Amino acid sequence: MSTALDLLDGFGFEAAAIVIGPEGVRAARGDLDLVRPWRSVTKTVTGTACAIALQEGCADLEDPAGPPGSTLRHLLAHASGYFYESDSTLQAPGLRRHYSNFGIDEAARHVERAVGRDFGDWVQERVADPLGMTGLDWTGSASVGAHGALTDLALLAGELLRPTLLEAPWMRELTTPQLPELVGIMPGFGKQDPNPFGLGIEVRGHKSPHWTGSGNSPETFGHFGMRGTAFWVDPVADLALVVGTSHDFCDAHREVMPRLADAVLAEHRR
């Protein structure tokens, strides 16, 4: 009998996935323990760690941070005006969603100063250790530096499906659109109007084309990484999906990921 995760074969290269419901893992296939580069999925861990610092009163979203006129909110929501990989600016803060690794790294540096701790240590103590993410390798950039197995990423996805670390107001800040009207380029998918993001986390909204399924709710949030790792959480369907592949993000991901998402929703939504 075929299942939704059989669609992993459509990638044409190694792939694995985990389906998570509120009770835990519902289905899994492939090499779940292989350590994979998370690349931009790292931003979701950074966003979560920053939200915990906000919840604890160590920092504020309106803190000046980044280029003149920018705040911590702008940095985490890709609205500071920074270029992709440098401290040069493309425009003034708050005018457009311009995806920026440098901006996320700068947000982490701001929170690092605010908490008085190395940001990697903060992630370990406030996110990885409480969730049991024992294999998370946090090295280098807070925007793209994490490595880990899908089992560790599934723990994060499960947490975001049923939060224990964040109170409801901070979970909303993390996972709902910041500056929701902003237009921007969605890496790999072109111009989106609007192009919603939370705090280091992408929000699906009504983006088209997109890497999640047509059946995913607009409230769906998550991220994909250019080295082939991704996850989404759909709070309306009460489901999450974690995917890892051995190939950089390519046309196969653009074609298979939406079909996989819709198949998972059809099979596992209750």
Automatic annotation (TrEMBL):
The UniProt record lists the keyword Cytoplasm: no
Domain of life: Bacteria
Keyword tags: Hydrolase, Oxidoreductase
Enzyme Commission designation: 3.-.-.-
Enzyme class per UniProt: hydrolase
Domain Beta-lactamase-related as annotated: residue spans: 35-260
InterPro entries hit by this protein: Beta-lactam-related, Beta-lactam/transpept-like, Diverse_Enzym_Activities
SUPFAM superfamilies: beta-lactamase/transpeptidase-like
Keyword Oxidoreductase: yes
One term of GO molecular function: hydrolase activity
Protein's name according to its UniProt entry: Serine hydrolase domain-containing protein
Lineage: Bacteria, Bacillati, Actinomycetota, Actinomycetes, Micrococcales
